[in-house]
Amino acid sequence: MKVVFLKDVDGVASGGEVKEVKNGFARNYLIPKNMATPATRNNLLQTKKLQQQSKVTRIKHLEDLRELAEAVDGTVVTIAMRAGANEQLYGSVTGTMLADAVSSITDRNIDRQLVQLDNPIRKLGIFFVPIRLHPEVSASVKVIVHETDTDPESLEENDREENDVEINGTIVVDSESEEATGEEPATDEIEDGDKAEENSILKENNP
Question: What domains can you pick out in the chain, each with its CATH number?
Fold first, then answer.
């Protein structure tokens, strides 16, 4: 069946587009949900108007998603879990759990499918999980998985102690170590050493 799409349908067609689809898909899904209409003569005359309306709707939707990304980005989610001595969890933290937690914290609806967590989290630690709201819009949340009855802030402190401190993109290490800093001996020290060696050679040659 040939239909005129009344609005954007992800992965299928854009609003105003005329497309041939399966009869069952059109009659049982697209038409009842007011997503498309049969491609009659009168409906075909509306395609240009529908395309313009869909473009405006698409731009507004993108603006809303960007606003949502700003609200979600940087959200800190703390999840208490029981774990063994090797920090492996008795269970796992899933994308659904993270979506529910972020939704609760931000008071914004985050669908589980938007959480880019390929595999459930199965150990204690700090993780940065992307939230993909749109191909052009994404955010990131900080997930702290800590053991039950422990303070999540202690996990953050331990994480900072185990890693070098980073300031403005520069790794800061022990400044007292030449090997760490990559410092070379001062130029005047090298020159003084060369002069001493030269005087010693002159004395040997001129007793």
Answer: 2-64 (3.40.5.10), 73-164 (3.10.430.100)
Q: Please determine, for residue 194, whether its predicted confidence score (pLDDT) is greater than 70.
A: no
Model-wide pTM > 0.85: no
- DSSP calls for 103-118: HHHHTS---GGGB--S
Residue the block writes with tokens 């491609």 = 39
Residues with Cβ within 8 Å of residue 36, at least 6 apart in sequence:
3, 4, 5, 6, 9, 13, 21, 26, 30
Distance in angstroms (rounded) separating the CA atoms of residues 18 and 171:
56
Cβ–Cβ < 8 Å for 141, 128: yes
Closest listed residue to residue 120, CA positions, set 141, 80, 89, 87: 89
CB neighbours of residue 114 within 10 Å: 20
Reported as a single tens digit per residue, the pLDDT across 41-65 is 999 999 999 999 999 999 999 999 9
137-147, strands of its sheet edge to edge: 76-81, 137-147, 125-134
What's the burial of 131, exposed, middle or buried (CB within 10 Å: 0-12/13-18/19+)?
A: buried
